[in-house]
Design a protein that fits this description.
Keywords: ATP-binding, Nucleotide-binding, Transport. This protein has six helices and eight strands; from the N terminus they run βββαββαααβαβαβ. The chain has 200 residues and is an alpha/beta fold. The strands form two sheets. The chain has a five-stranded parallel beta sheet, sandwiched between helices. The chain has a three-stranded antiparallel beta sheet with strand order 2-1-4, with no helix packed on it. The chain is globular and about 50 Å long.
Amino acid sequence: MQVAMVDLEHHFANHPSLFTGLTMTLVSGHVYALTGPSGSGKSTLLGILAGWTTPSSGTVVHTGIEAIGWVFQNPHGVAARTALDHVALPLLAQGEKRSDAEKHASTYLARFNLTYAANRAFKELSGGEAQRLMLARAIAAAPSLLLVDEPTAQLDPRTAATVNQTLGAIADDGTIVVVATHDQRTREACTDVIDLGEYT
Ligand SMILES: Nc1ncnc2c1ncn2[C@@H]1O[C@H](COP(=O)(O)OP(=O)(O)OP(=O)(O)O)[C@@H](O)[C@H]1O
């Protein structure tokens, strides 16, 4: 399973290039921090990796990528549903029995330090808990490629730290993870860095 970026260049009509000459192969089990100044094209590159945006030149070759997951900067959940329900849902959708899905969901909650919050409604969760829940839910859906956009942007530094602590373990199942971020500590929690500042 891999995603190969080959000589990518992108610019919007009548604008200069955001990045150029970007060649890199993303592999299973790695968590890539996607960094660069504001406006350098991080979100645009996530869209290119997902296949939503066609690069101006170069190619992205997906090998063995079946499902792509996203986690956005603002957590979205169902207010009255519990944390456990949010993670069990993708497992039920994969055909697991409810009892198995809940057991399995509990292990994902544990991985993101949320065991204590399993039976809390989404609306009762703090920003950091809700963001960790989004990561747990995304991983439970077993994507081959997970794209995460600024997971700590809305969080204070202490809460952000609780999210960053879980990032290292996020690719344990072999998922390829790309995290767009401005946060130095998020960057340090990842295994690799793609710095768009190097491709201008
Ligand atoms: N559809 C579009 N048409 C024209 N310009 C666009 C479009 N989408 C984004 N841009 C511009 O391209 C540049 C890169 O945007 P992008 O959101 O990818 O940057 P970013 O690195 O994610 O920024 P930030 O760190 O501020 O979130 C910005 O100047 C943005 O205004």
